[in-house]
Specification:
Strand content: 15-25%
Helix content: 25-40%
CATH superfamily: Ribosomal protein L5
CATH topology: 50s Ribosomal Protein L5, Chain: A
Largest sheet: 5 strands, antiparallel
Structural class: alpha+beta
Number of helices: 4
CATH architecture: 2-Layer Sandwich
Number of strands: 7
Strand order of the largest sheet: 2-3-1-6-5
Radius of gyration: 18 Å
Length: 182
């Protein structure tokens, strides 16, 4: 299968113009603003991963997304969770532009079909603003990580849309070709 990202984006933009009409300003068209990928690393006494594992997770996220991952530290101490301020609690990557569409195509056409018993994404994961959140239990669905990875981790993928209302969400998701099942 030959996946050309430029053709995908051009087809998406022309479909948006056709769907929402040419009479409104092109800057007001609904669009995908960014994709945020997050991995929680455990906190305090609930530590799931040590520092070597966090570095491995950051390395795998860099391979998956093509962009350097950043470590997320806690802002304040919470004694009930045995958490100290400045302690690393996660790893994140925020994608925009070409890398965002590269990841989107990889997710739709390569990673999600590798999920066991995949029948589509749930339509119940939209928030009030129209953004979509997707939880992936195992990182092994990405070919860059593979089944012989040092660390198996889950990740959360958030799709953030701009200039969108609830009536336009369903149409834009269909244009993006996300396999959402009602």
């Amino acid at each position: 299968m030959n996946l050309n990202i430029k053709d995908f984006v051009d087809q998406l933009k022309s479909s948006i113009v056709e769907t929402f009409g040419k009479d409104i300003n092109p800057m007001a068209y609904p669009s995908l603003s960014k994709i945020s990928i997050n991995v929680g690393c455990g906190t305090g006494s609930n530590k799931k991963y040590d520092s070597k594992d966090r570095d491995a997770i950051a390395k795998y996220l860099e391979k998956i997304t093509g962009q350097k991952a950043s470590l997320v530290a806690s802002n304040k101490s919470i004694s009930g969770f045995k958490l100290r301020a400045g302690e690393i609690v996660g790893v994140k990557v925020t994608l925009r532009g070409k890398k965002m569409y590269d990841f989107l195509v990889k997710l739709i056409y390569v990673a999600l079909p590798r999920t066991r018993d995949f029948r589509g994404l749930s339509a119940n994961h939209f928030d009030k603003s129209g953004n979509y959140s997707l939880g992936i239990k195992s990182s092994t669905i990405f070919p860059e990580v593979g089944f012989d990875a040092d660390v198996n981790f889950g990740l959360q993928v958030n799709f953030v849309f701009k200039n969108i209302d609830s009536s336009q969400t369903e149409t834009l998701v269909k244009l993006l070709k996300l396999p959402i099942v009602q």
